[in-house]
Amino acid sequence: MKNIAVMISGGGTNLQSLIDHQADGTLGGRLRYVVSNRKNAFGLVRAAQAGIENDFLSVADYESEEAYFDEIAHRFEQRKIDLIVLAGFLKVLPESFTRRFRGRIINIHPSLIPSYSGVGFYGRKVHEAVVADKAKVTGATVHFVDEGCDTGPIILQSEVPVFPEDDPDSVQARVLIVEHQLLPLAVKKICDGEVALDERGQIQWNKKEH
Ligand code: GRF
Fold it and tell me: Which of 7, 9, 13, 92 should be mutated for ligand 1, with most atoms under 8 A from CB?
């Protein structure tokens, strides 16, 4: 069974969804470790309640960002992590880290990438832009992480309607419901070997064996 690490910065509702799917036996992997770069992230409480080893690691305690991510990488390797899930982790990963775990890092983004993605589009800002544009559709995307910002190959996407009376909070709430289905599904597909990145960095879908 694949060992999964989850990186968070906040409330961790996506982490909770992974925990719930693991409890149901529908995750396909084992949640082994949770790391937060913010001390008060409620996701750390969720991890502890689920009995998952978890750590708050502050970049301020390291001499450089690279040293910080080297420490995280070291901890992941010690724990034989196979898959790293970014679930609301609000720090850009350095290239050294993404290269080290090439094809083994995924991210959930609250829009239909490439719309409302890239530098500056994170958290509520994404939904504010959707409402400001009077967009009729938004959604969620799970993708492999490469060296760019929200640019890696897309694994799954799901649309969410936007209504004229929506505000950023109502859009966010509707998108989160979809995120909570999409992320565990993507994790399962990776754990089952249904999807992977090949050596050229392209998505490969493999037929499921029954
Ligand atoms: C989610 O909207 C996710 O798509 C984005 O950050 C948010 C995290 O929410 N990357 P939560 O901490 O999982 O509740």
Answer: 13
Per-residue pLDDT of the chain (210 residues; tens, 9 = 90+): 999 999 999 999 999 999 999 999 999 999 999 999 999 999 999 999 999 999 999 999 999 999 999 999 999 999 999 999 999 999 999 999 999 999 999 999 999 999 999 999 999 999 999 999 999 999 999 999 999 999 999 999 999 999 999 999 999 999 999 999 999 999 999 999 999 999 899 999 997 655
* Residue from 106, 162, 153 nearest 129 by CA: 162
Cα(99)–Cα(135) distance, rounded to whole angstroms?
A: 35
Residue 109 among the catalytic residues: yes
Q: Please write down the HEC assignment for all residues of 77-104.
A: HHCCCCEEEECCCCCCCCHHHHHHCCCC
Task: Tell which residue, 100, 78, 75, 103, has the closest CA to residue 7.
Answer: 75
Q: Whose CA is nearest to atom 14 of ligand 1?
A: 13
CA–CA gap between residue 111 and residue 116 (Å, rounded): 6
Work out the number of other CB atoms within 10 angstroms of the CB of residue 164: 7
- Report residue 115 as tokens: 């719309």
Which residue has its alpha carbon closest to ligand 1 atom 12? 12
